[in-house]
Design a protein that fits this description.
The protein is of the alpha+beta class. About 30% of the residues lie in helices and about 25% in strands.
Length: about 230
């Protein structure tokens, strides 16, 4: 069964009704079973569970052979340029602490694989009490629906000692958050371009970055982006 990202989300949330369900993390070795109460492995376990669930439901997908490389799954095995799926998780009580992408790697990748901007992010928010995990909410978003501006740069980033490392998410589900997500991929690209211009380490090489991304996106998709 071939599903788009939106159809997968609907099947998981609307049909399977995953939100509100609970799970328990146990580890067994020989005749000893222990309950795992640390959160270190939750993200990996939820991703493995999703993989097993897709196999159970006979949903077509291809797993990335390199777990360190974007994306986690391809939902269209015959066209690896569409329906890319990245899985993210976070502790509901602490808020989204994950990275959307490495800043430099992502910017560089868009000049050759600009279709990546349309990838899906499937996000699980969980709450943990002892070894019991409760799925509090699940979202399906594009990167521009997660990223946002900040008081430092036009796009929110993780910066240490004046070096930008990662693109960070907004608190997209909160009505009280100061910085709202971008409303379109064009606004996101504009903010990314302006951040590259303001950031000393990329300013000197930023001249044609945005035009390269726009050209590459049209080559892959046939769609011409208009970015101010």
């Amino acid at each position: 069964m071939k599903l788009t990202g939106q159809e997968l989300y609907s099947k998981l949330v609307d049909d399977y009704k995953i939100i509100g369900e609970t799970g328990v993390i146990n580890f067994s070795l020989k005749n000893l079973v222990i309950a795992i109460e640390t959160k270190d492995t939750v993200g990996n376990l939820l991703q493995e569970w999703l993989k097993a669930w897709m196999m159970q439901e006979k949903i077509e997908f291809q797993e990335n052979t390199n777990s360190q490389v974007f994306p986690d799954f391809y939902l269209d095995k015959h066209n690896l340029k569409q329906d890319l799926l990245e899985v993210k998780t976070f502790d509901w009580d602490r808020g989204p602490g994950f990275d959307l992408a490495n800043f430099d790697s992502y910017c560089n990748s868009l000049t050759v694989n600009a279709y990546r901007i349309d990838s899906y992010y499937l996000i699980f928010a969980y709450q943990m009490a002892g070894s019991v995990i409760t799925i509090k909410n699940v979202w399906l978003k594009r990167i521009w629906e997660l990223a946002c501006p900040s008081s430092t740069y036009p796009i929110k980033v993780q910066e240490k000692k004046n070096i930008i490392y990662n693109i960070r998410p907004s608190t997209w589900y909160s009505v009280r958050t100061t910085f709202k997500p971008f409303s379109s991929k064009e606004d996101f690209l504009s903010a990314l371009n302006e951040t590259r211009y303001q950031y000393p380490q990329t300013r000197h090489s930023n001249g044609h970055w945005l035009q390269s991304v726009i050209k590459n996106y049209q080559e892959h998709t046939g769609i011409s982006l208009i970015v101010k």
